[in-house]
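Try this one yourself first.
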């Protein structure tokens, strides 16, 4: 799923990783599991998984914006806000994200989730775990594990047909 070319560039097949995630999620979910995707990449994954798993209704979408520890410097994102059209109390939540890095987004999302109620359990599934954790958070399932320098960011993209690709960006 990951490969390095002769120039050392990272190549990830997002569609192949999605198929792997689909298989992995089937082992994590129970009959009462509710899918919840983190905006935006995780929400795209949850939407597609909901359809591919034949689950009724729409998955939940959750935003980390209001609970980020860097809220003062980032401000409120223009991405989708939290939409959980089900009772969180007692629910088994399968949280989905595209890339797990420091763990700070997951911490913020868990705070947001508990603002809505107390789930019975929360599992985390991601397409890519890139290491670099700053908090003791890990995925229950990761389709791939890669190592990237801190000045690079990996983001999921989705085309008009719903197919996934990854974008590798340099950050300062």
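Now uncover the answer:
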């Amino acid at each position: 799923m990951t490969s390095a070319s002769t120039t050392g560039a990272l190549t990830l097949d997002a569609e192949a990783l999605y198929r792997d995630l689909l298989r992995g999620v089937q082992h994590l979910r129970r009959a009462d599991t509710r899918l919840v995707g983190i905006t935006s990449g995780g929400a795209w994954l949850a939407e597609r998984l909901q359809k591919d798993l034949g689950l009724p209704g729409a998955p939940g979408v959750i935003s980390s914006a209001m609970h980020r520890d860097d809220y003062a410097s980032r401000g409120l994102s223009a991405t989708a806000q939290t939409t959980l059209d089900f009772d969180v109390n007692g629910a088994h939540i399968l949280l989905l994200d595209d890339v797990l890095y420091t763990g700070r987004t997951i911490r913020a999302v868990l705070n947001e989730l508990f603002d809505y109620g107390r789930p019975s359990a929360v599992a985390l599934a991601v397409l890519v775990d890139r290491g670099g954790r700053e908090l003791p958070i890990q995925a229950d399932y990761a389709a791939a594990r890669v190592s990237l320098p801190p000045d690079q960011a990996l983001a999921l993209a989705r085309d008009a047909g719903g197919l996934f690709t990854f974008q590798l960006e340099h950050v300062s």
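Discussion: The chain has four helices and nine strands. Confidence is low (pLDDT under 50) at residues 1-8.
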